Structure formats: C-alpha cells, structure tokens
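user: can you give me the structure for this one chain? tokens are fine.
assistant: on it. calling the predictor now.
[tool input]
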Amino acid sequence: MTVLPLAREFTIRSSADHESACRVDQVQVVPWGGLSDADRLRWRQLRATQSELRTPFFSLAFFDAVQASRGDVLCAVMRSGGQVVGFLPFHRINHIAWPAGRFVNDAHNVVAHPDTTFDWCWLLKECQVKAYDFHSMVGSMSNIEQVSFQGITESFRADLGNDSKQFLAGLEKQHKTIRRQEQKSRKLAREIGPISIEIDCRDPSILQQMIAWKRDQYRRTNILDLFTPEWTRNMVDQLHRSNGPDTRGLLSVLRAGDTIVAAHFGMLENGLLHYWFPTYDTAFSRYSPGTALFKEIIRVADRHGIRCIDMGYGEQPYKRKQTDTITTVKHGCVTPSSVYRNMRAMRLAATNVIKQFPMKTQLKQVLRTVQPNAGISKLQ
C-alpha cells in the first residue's frame, strides 16, 4: 500500500502578519498561463489569510488542471498601489463570468486578504462582463449586498482531527446505517473475498472504470452527467497524474479479494480530502460498498495525514450520516443589472417548487428522458 506523505499544516496568517487593509485600484485580466512565478507565490500568501480558502478548489493545481483541459481560464489580477492584493479566476462566456471549473468547482471566491475591499460593479466592468454567477461561494464577499442575489445551501464536512477511529466510533453511535455496515462488510468478505483498501491507486485504467461507474450512476438517478464534456474527464485525468507535494488527485479503491467493488476520486491537500466522485459496482450494491469504502478511508486516515473530509454542498442523504459539521455556501450572482438578479431569483424559486413536488423523482425521470443533456450549459 502506498503511504502518502504526511500533510503539512495549513497556517492561517492574521492581519498583523499581513499588510494593512487596502482597496483595489487596478485590475488586469490575464490568461491563466500568464500568471508569473511571483503571482503564484502571491496567490499562496493571500490564500493563507482565510481559512475558508483551504479547500483544494483554491489550489493552483486545480486551476492548472482546468486550464490544461479547457484552455479558457482567465484571471483578474487585483492591485492596490501597484501591489497584487487579490485574484479572481473565471471563464468569460456570453459576457458572464463563471467560476473557473464551472459546475465541478465546489468552492469559489476572490482570493484576497479578508480586509481587502473593492467595488464589484467596477470589477465586473474591468473584466468585461455584466455579471458573476456562482453556485458555491465560500467566505465573505466585499461590498456585495446591494448588487447581488444570494441563496444559501448547506455544506457538509467530517472533521476527523487526530483520531479518525474515534470519529468513526462516534458516527456509528449516531447512525444505524453506519453501525450496521460492519455486518454487510463481513458478509462481503465471506462471500467475495477479504476486504482491503488502496488509498492512493495510480492505475489510469481503474480511474477510467471509476468514471464509467459514476456516469452510469448519473444515468440511473436522472442526474446531469458531469463527465459528458470531454474536458471534465481530461481534468480528472490531469489531477490524477499530478503528483505534487501539496495538492494531488487521490483515487481510492476498495477490493473484496481481487475484485474492485467501489472507488472514489477526490483531491487531497494539507490534510483536507475533498470527497468528490464516490461510486461502486452495482453488482455488489447489496453490500453497500460505497459506505464500506468511506469507513475504510476513515480507518486509515491517520496513517495518511487526512484530518478532514469535505463533502461539499448537496442534498444527498449520505452526507448527513457521514459528517459532523454543517456550514453554508452561497449561490446566486453579483451584477448591477436588476433584470439579471430577478431572473436568477425566479430560476431558484422555480427549482424550489419542483423540489417540493410530491412526484419529483418521476418528474426528473421524465425530464431526463426527454432532454438527456438538460443542464449541460452548467459545464460549457
């Protein structure tokens, strides 16, 4: 089994360690590849001033992978008095700015010191867009209240600390599903073969199997297939092939004997694992292999320096059962256009009505049958 290097601590620098509060007075939009080594160093320094930015979705490696797979990542470099004080990576599509990585990016915001201020309408004008549309904003946003529409969504995290086995014992006490998984796992071991986990599998063919299983799951559950565009598959492959000291794509595999029954691909950085694409072979669904995989990852977490598992936002029931911390993220837009804000609010209201519909599962199935690629614009 590959042993990952122990994670380094993600140190949050206080305002006293940083320059005093400043206001942005200049913005330059450059291609992602146009960032200099000094810019990338500055990115790391500014990122370390906010705990909300510790997720791998703010890592340079993530945006490098998105750029390598799409080629259209832009970055607004924000300055005050000539010094770089912030960054906003984005895609410019039809005069709208979208978070770089589109809908597969589970956490986004401006990378800046929390005391940095700027005028959003001016920033959008400098970026040559009429709005910034977001779906999972973390942290605070400067001077945004009057020009934005914002909704709130719950986000889930498992804080393992330094004793992941104790965390797992706590989950088993709280949730019958987690507790009873041991019976299913023992049955899996008896009937198929001994259970083992490979926490960091580097086999590209198994990555492709994981993607195939996930795509099948999307189809079965009438959810937008995030791997429909070629660029999302290339991005995951790029992250899997990366082997940097800080951020890495992590493919974890659960086997029963020699048979792979479940797999997960996520991103690991500084002890935080973003739980991104869990999936399993439906031939073994009676054993709940997805839950078995999650428990095995927790069991070996201490050994591999994993201190936190972030499951992000979403309504999947398993997230509540497998985590102990609930936070919130924002979705909406920032724009000087009241028409765009109202349109965004109406879209959310319509979505909420559908979610309350008594036969929403059947409705989703009909809609997905009629329009298999409904929602694909979120990934373009």
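assistant: here you go. The chain is about 35% helix and 25% strand. The domain at 15-153+328-379 is CATH 3.40.630 (Aminopeptidase).
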